[in-house]
Amino acid sequence: MTLKSVLTTVVAGSHYLIHPQVLGTIQETIKPDVIIPVTVLEPDQLYNHLEDTLRLFDLYDDVFNPEFGSVLIEKPGAKAAEAAMSVGDGKSVMHLRKDTKDTKDTATARATKSSVSDMPPGPYILHGANVHQAWRMYNDTMDAFAWAVYPDKVDEIDVFNVLQLPADSASNHTLVPVPSRLYGTLPPEKAPLRGFRFTVPDCMSLRGVPTSISSASWRHLHNDTAADSTAALARRLDELGAVIVGKTKSSQFGSGREWKDVVAPKNPREDGHQDAAGGSTGAGSAVAGYDWLKASIGIHGALPTETISGIRSCQWQLEPNQSPPAIGQAFETAAAHGLFALRTSPSRVPLDGAQISPL
């Protein structure tokens, strides 16, 4: 696994990852090492509906906060020539260049150009003259995550990077980056999960990310080798518009019992000291404990399970003439965390690229 250097910053007391990909540049000349929180807006939003737009962003998006609204970047458009003074309230206005950025059309496997006019309005970080996405970093207070990840490119989800930063000094918890909910641009009919943040279990492969299965011996055997492909279910989630922000812990090989090599996830119910239970413990802990996470995919032993918006379904993996195990065993994590459970039909969830314990 190759570690990459990243830039982080603090905006209004919250920690942010400055995503490495450059999405555009501004016309103005500023110092190359300056870091500024900004909001990218359409000309109509900037000049006709500024305050309403910023209030809506603040209400809808947990990544945005009012400090992003102090410096505004205007996208190229019909009203781009209007005077910046018309904005008022002491806000600064900058302007995006009409440059294009290289992307790849995966459907036709050919290089194309994407205009900065396609950039979704919302919060961004200006590093020098370059515009980057702002990913807010949350503390993993439930110890639910095995790996916190972010995509190598935000406009072409193929390779993931592991975010490995020193634990937050105040809380001693690792940090999980999440993108703005405003970045999703596909229509709901094409991407019904647009902007929804998901996690997958540690046993499910993401290209560029190792698999540990909560086992030090497994990691030593495979030398933390990063996966060279992404599991079918994770690819399907991406196609539907979901954003995968990490891999959650399961007990060793999904047994539901062993927590020898990693810290067991916490159960947020009641006094916070309840038994987390089950094999997909990290998935249940994350969904129950974090309001910034929409859903998790979990694995319970040989039983792949899917947690969506706190509704958990499972798919039996049975040999010929084998009877399904007790329902309570499959739903143990869901019950312990106050989540609901449903069973889906066999073969409903693709398992290509997942390490499933035969036990």
Automatic annotation (TrEMBL):
Identify this protein by name: Amidase domain-containing protein
- InterPro entries the UniProt entry points to: Amidase_dom, Arp1_N, AS_sf
- The Basic and acidic residues compositionally biased stretches are 257-274
User: Can you name the source organism?
Assistant: Claviceps africana
Q: Where is this region: Disordered?
A: 252-281
Taxonomic placement: Eukaryota, Fungi, Dikarya, Ascomycota, Pezizomycotina
Q: Where would I find the Scytalone dehydratase-like protein Arp1 N-terminal domain in this sequence?
A: 31-128
- Name of a matching Pfam family: DUF8016
Which parts of the sequence belong to the Amidase domain? 189-288
